[in-house]
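Revision sheet: structure tokens.
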Amino acid sequence: MKAVLKRNRLEAWGHSVVDLLNALPAHIVVPQDLYDMAMELDKGYISTRYPDALPSGSPRTRYTQLEARRFIDDAQAILKFCEGLLT
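Predicted:
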């Protein structure tokens, strides 16, 4: 995503996928389902990255295989969208 922004001479700052999508130029149409995926990824960012982000237990014990698979699928879909903008 940051490569797409930089190619368009725009600021590429932060880690929020939703914010990065919102920073894309107006001529790039982002499908709504990618925004939904980005929101889900953003919600998992802090709690999966820091071992003390949750009140009890480690993040490893708070996410299911299904959720992990969905995060990976969401990230791959967003990556594919960005790759299409860079080719």
